[in-house]
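Incident log, structure service

09:12 report received: a user says their structure output differs between two submissions of the same chain.
09:20 pulled the input from the user's history:
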Amino acid sequence: MRIGWQHRESYELPTTTIYFSGAMADQIGPFGSRHHAIWRVSANTFLIPAGERPQILIIRQADLEVLALLRRQTAARILYLIDDDIWSGATDTNLPLAYRQRLFRLALGITPILQRADSIYVTASALQERLRHRTELVHPGLVQAPKSLEHHDGRLLKIVFPGTRSHLKDLEDIAAPVARFLKQHPDCELHTFLGRYAPLQLRLPNAVHHAPQDWATYQQTLRRERFHIGIAPALPTRFNAARSHNKILELATFGAAPVYGNGRPFRYMAEAAGAALICGQVEDWFECLSRLYRDRPALRQIAAANTKLALQLGDPRDLRSFWQKELGLSSPCNNRVAA
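09:34 re-ran on a clean worker, output below:
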């Protein structure tokens, strides 16, 4: 969603869609609406005017309009949602420099909001441990599971790496065994969304490196494309340890069987559900992919188990109930608050 503010454009973040607006869409309206319980202040900030005190929900970042609203609404209850360990990320040399700089600026910018916040919502237990107080765990609620897994009947085996540049080092770490697998199996195809940033070892005839996509475009890709295997390597870093389990939902949307690296904090839960393979060492990746290539029925079974797990973990109705309770929206509201 694109919203103009003072000749600028801002975009709804994936975090906002996945953890809030996707489940609450019918209750969100423009600022001042008499027909909606939640008013959109900017792309990633919302005002809930009902109750004894108005509430302002800020997701990940705050723009100038939001900061101005906070100065006016001194009595408002402030709610803040954060989805990354931005403090660890700002110093993690495995991340691109430009991304580390953005995280550093974000950490500086949200400090006053964290100090003022009445409630802080986090997306992983590692973030709860870092922030310690006033935190509530919120789970992702974006599941668009395919109606069937019939694409697994096809001969061509398609592998997807659904990471952005912030995951580039994770992919580079396993590039050699993945490249070896692709060279030995020309009837398999790797897809990434890294474009010119893709590792050199993986620039092969049967590798397609799509240009990086914005969130709106990627949502269309999620609805349209189907894959058989989803690879999600992760170095064992503090930043990766604070990732949520949304990758389970994302790969279920693609209809893929996940293969996780040892930096994914939810990997054992997925493995216990029969919903993933785990590659503990770099050299394991070739054998994991080869195993799935040889046993297509098992591959489909893992993909089906991942779909089931995703629906259990990410039912949007559960997320909606969570926010209804947190925001006190069970009763009609009187939308009267000074703008």
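09:41 both user submissions now match this output. Likely a transient worker issue. Closing.
09:42 reviewer note: The chain is about 40% helix and 20% strand. Residues 150-313 form a domain with the Rossmann fold fold (CATH 3.40.50.2000).
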